[in-house]
Amino acid sequence: MSLRGLFLCLALIILAALVAPRGASAHAALVSSEPATGAVLDKAPSATTLTFSEPVAPLVFRLLGPDGKPADLAGVAAVGSRVTAPLPTDLARGTHVLSWRVVSEDGHPVGGTLVFSVGAASSAANAAYAADRDPVVAAGLWLARLGLYAGLFLGIGGVFFRAFAMIGPLPPGGLRQGLVGLLAIGMAAALVGLCAQGLDALGEPASRLASASVWQAGFSTSFGRTTILAMLGCALALAALFVSRRPVRRSLAALAMLGPGLALAATGHAAAADPQLLMRPLVFLHASAIAAWAGALLPLVVALAAGGGRAALARFSVAAPAVFALLFASGAAIAVVQLGSVDALWTTGYGRVLAAKLAAVALVLAIAAHNRFALTAPVLRGDGRATRRLVGSIVAEIALVLAIFGLAALWRFTPPPRALDVALPAIEVHLHGEKAMAEVVVTPHRQRDATVEVEPLDGDGVPFRPLEVTLALAPAGGGMEPIRGAATPGADGRWQATMPGLAAGGTWTIRLDLLVSDFEKAQLQGEITLPAP
Q1: pLDDT at residue 172 above 70?
Q2: CB neighbours (10 Å) of residue 467?
Q3: Of 51, 401, 444, 461, which one has the fewest beta carbons inside 10 Å?
């Protein structure tokens, strides 16, 4: 790769990182609903309101009445993170099931059900209307991601490597045909993914793939931008393959190389995480590094197998350490943000996929190190045996890369731990004793501890500052020792404590000890009911 070409590539990468689309936040999760799920109401509500952890857009809201007949709701509107769905004015007595689907700003559909009853519960409570994802749609989502990665990283990356590292005509052995095939797979996978995204967003089966509403729904999500960027990148790479003039070929290849980074930075869990000014450029750089590294593998195999490629290998061996450094640094930063804690690596589905991916990457790194330090020098000297061994080793590396792409595609179905760590609705309880009172607010969190906030009050209900506040919480039914913790005072006069293991739902007994003075202690006790995580 020439120095001029390298500087051009870096300049384009930095420019794209600065203009990459922004504005999304974390993966959406339902925080609260009105009415609450399971509620039995004296009279029918005029509307339901769902509050999420981030802004969402409504997709499908369907009400299943006591008679078992579903009806789509009209007039559903979203204002920020709150979605309001007007209900029919003639709701029958009995249990109703609201099946809802929204799309979060990272492009992933989120669905669930809200069960409430008017007057009294009925047997319809067991007839949940939320169907599981169609397995054909799930397979389509995974295959589309795998094909998209192959086209973006191996296809566009291969064209870029061909333009900047391989001087002269294309080597024999079908390199052009192979790259054309990869780019075609990438473009087809983008379209399949768009359709599967629409089916998943609306909760429709695969048989509905020809519906215009399905394609419109897929395009309305952030994956619509990814589809456009991916297809544009693949089209530019195709053009670069058939241009004979080197300056034009390199310009087209450099522009196409923006495709992988921009396409992945436009959607997905990692790109949607906060802080946006850091995460989207990191995703862009990570994807660009993958394309620069993985894209070199197929051209090198074809060229070396045909008896050439030594000059390209020499250039790649010089650039590879910098590419690997960028790849691992950006990947490590993304992983830290996505995991949130070390134990999430083995306690969550996302973490287990990441662990498997890291194991495969470690194996690839071992193969790459062996190629670099044991085989490259003999190959550059013209050693035929070393060349054959290097070709076989790179083929194994390509197979592992495809396996890594397959693992990464599984993340489409597993929200990252940082998205699961959403606060559930807070529970307030008033504790009353002979000498003191307290207002207690418990906020449980998904996947981790709960926070407890205490406002001490004297016998007349006036806030005061005790010397010490300690808490003890235990399941009301017994079976385990109390969870104990000491609260720390805040500037506003409230005391706060983090209670490990309090994320589970159910009824809990809470005991509060207020040290009023060195010789006086007030003890308060009551019960709280926590929602299921």
Answers
A1: no
A2: 12
A3: 461
